[in-house]
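This section describes the prediction task in plain terms. A model, or a person checking by hand, is given the sequence of a single protein chain and must write out its three-dimensional structure as a string of tokens. No templates, partner chains or ligands are provided. The sample shown here is typical of the held-out split.
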Amino acid sequence: MARAYNFSPGPAMLPESVLLEARATMLEYGDAGASIVEISHRGAEFIDIAARAEADLRELLAIPADYAVLFLPGGATTQQALLPLNFAAPGQRADYVLTGHWGATATRQAAPYVDLNVAASSEADGYRSIPPVDQWKLSKDAAYVHVTANETIHGVEFRPSKPGGHAFPDTGDVPLFADFSSSIASEPVDIPRFGAIYAGAQKNLGPVGIGVVIVRRDLLARAGQPRADIFDYRLQLAADSMLNTPPTWNWYVAGLTFRWMLEQGGVEAFARRSDDKAGLLYAAIDGSGGFYRNEVDRAVRSRMNVPFFLHDPALDEAFLAQAREAGLIGLKGHRVTGGMRASIYNPMPLEGVQALVDLMQDFQRRHG
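The expected answer:
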């Protein structure tokens, strides 16, 4: 059976070579006599897997030594609740910038623990832009400023490397925290600009069920708020992210994905690929004469998640049916926005995007 091109936003497609390697070791890992999902996380085999995964991620993202790396169960939403518990005093102000659905979700997770200040929001224009930094109402005494690097649903992205793109702000002595779930490892990131970045793995880094937190070590000295040991980043770090039994299989497959990305040329290579894929798809949308449209401000269009709409919503189901027949899946837009959405993370090859563009052009000839 031929594998489809999977445009799902997450859980997303994984590199086929990673899946094949994982399959080959599912029954028995090395000479352990058992599968990774059966061996102890405290045994030599898994400790080696975990150490290799961290070393590869550090190399991939150029993570400085003064930043800790945690591998934790759950996705980004879990970390959204844990950030204020670990880094804000009870009732302390925290600034949030909303550029889409996941920024708004982050505020709901944090609201029980902080004096939440929405410093800026593009909700009024349907989350189609990023508010200019000079309009942000930041607090001098905030515990941190939180942004979402790429909005998976609305297709809005901070792009410091793009001419005319929206750069991450300088927040001075207040640390900048960022949800990088859907754009991590797609281009170089200047880690020292941030106090902490976090990401659910199930888009660019590996399978669902595990997340990555990269945090400046000095911030871990903050007392934070009363919390159970399992929610304490300091204790997780002291236990090498194994305070309790971690999702070992997910961690292992994430590690295979890190290694694959390094072998492919690292984030610099994927930055070029991402630009090529996104450029091809946006050109097809913009060149369709209005048959397809993307409503995001062009300066902040996402390279990872491309939402688009057909000129007549009555054609949506026919478009999805033709896509499935062509081996293109996961294109239905989120229930919040409707329409279509193509998620083109690192494992999506250029050939997959070309297949989608060919389909779009054929569908327009049939129905235009």
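For orientation: The chain has two domains: 17-263, 265-367.
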